[in-house]
């Protein structure tokens, strides 16, 4: 089997045996997706770059224990999410709190002006960013990373029913936000 057709699971088996080339192949296949996921979760490209690299160090360490109960991509996104949350907790003391943030004057355009300047995709991205973290994460994993409900449940460590409930409310909020912004069609 050549490198382009070798499955991710076969590559993890090779990593477990100490094969550095297999790590490089998995890195090439999954780094961009993990980087984008972490960048969305943290809002920091520098943090995303560091964490994405750490995920592959973790792959090297944990490969012998990988049992194949989930897809390799799901497993790697789970590692990325855990590392992002850990790093965000460490950085939390440096963040401005909500009360201080509310005191900062808003110099942004009105919602009407903003929606006139942006196309629907950009507006939708902004509305996704405004969702609560639990809703934003399921939307991000489903629509921007192509994960299934069960895979999202594995990444987040929650039941599939909870994923579905969060997805329902996230879609509802996005539809309401789009409608309020003047888009006639709700969820695409």
TrEMBL record:
<keyword id="KW-0805">Transcription regulation</keyword>
<keyword id="KW-0238">DNA-binding</keyword>
<dbReference type="Pfam" id="PF04542">
    <property type="entry name" value="Sigma70_r2"/>
</dbReference>
<dbReference type="InterPro" id="IPR013324">
    <property type="entry name" value="RNA_pol_sigma_r3/r4-like"/>
</dbReference>
<dbReference type="InterPro" id="IPR007630">
    <property type="entry name" value="RNA_pol_sigma70_r4"/>
</dbReference>
<keyword id="KW-0804">Transcription</keyword>
<dbReference type="InterPro" id="IPR014284">
    <property type="entry name" value="RNA_pol_sigma-70_dom"/>
</dbReference>
<dbReference type="InterPro" id="IPR007627">
    <property type="entry name" value="RNA_pol_sigma70_r2"/>
</dbReference>
<dbReference type="InterPro" id="IPR036388">
    <property type="entry name" value="WH-like_DNA-bd_sf"/>
</dbReference>
<dbReference type="InterPro" id="IPR039425">
    <property type="entry name" value="RNA_pol_sigma-70-like"/>
</dbReference>
<dbReference type="Pfam" id="PF04545">
    <property type="entry name" value="Sigma70_r4"/>
</dbReference>
<dbReference type="InterPro" id="IPR013325">
    <property type="entry name" value="RNA_pol_sigma_r2"/>
</dbReference>
<comment type="similarity">
    <text>Belongs to the sigma-70 factor family. ECF subfamily.</text>
</comment>
<feature type="domain" description="RNA polymerase sigma-70 region 4">
    <location>
        <begin position="129"/>
        <end position="174"/>
    </location>
</feature>
<keyword id="KW-0731">Sigma factor</keyword>
<feature type="domain" description="RNA polymerase sigma-70 region 2">
    <location>
        <begin position="26"/>
        <end position="92"/>
    </location>
</feature>
<protein>
    <submittedName>
        <fullName>Sigma-70 family RNA polymerase sigma factor</fullName>
    </submittedName>
</protein>
């Amino acid at each position: 089997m050549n490198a382009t057709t070798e499955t991710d699971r076969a590559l993890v088996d090779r990593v477990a045996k100490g094969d550095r080339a297999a790590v490089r192949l998995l890195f090439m296949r999954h780094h961009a997706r993990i980087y984008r996921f972490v960048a969305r979760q943290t809002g920091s490209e520098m943090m995303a770059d560091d964490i994405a690299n750490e995920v592959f160090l973790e792959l090297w360490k944990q490969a012998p224990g990988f049992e194949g109960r989930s897809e390799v991509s799901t497993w790697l996104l789970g590692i990325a999410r855990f590392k992002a949350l850990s790093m965000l907790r460490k950085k939390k003391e440096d963040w401005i709190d909500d009360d201080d943030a509310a005191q900062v004057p808003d110099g942004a355009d009105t919602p009407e002006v903003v929606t006139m300047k942006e196309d629907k995709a950009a507006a939708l991205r902004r509305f996704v960013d405004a969702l609560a973290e639990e809703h934003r994460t399921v939307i991000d994993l489903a629509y921007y990373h192509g994960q299934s409900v069960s895979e999202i449940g594995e990444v987040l460590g929650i039941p599939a029913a909870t994923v579905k409930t969060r997805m329902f409310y996230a879609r509802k909020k996005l539809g309401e936000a789009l409608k309020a912004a003047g888009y006639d069609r709700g969820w695409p």
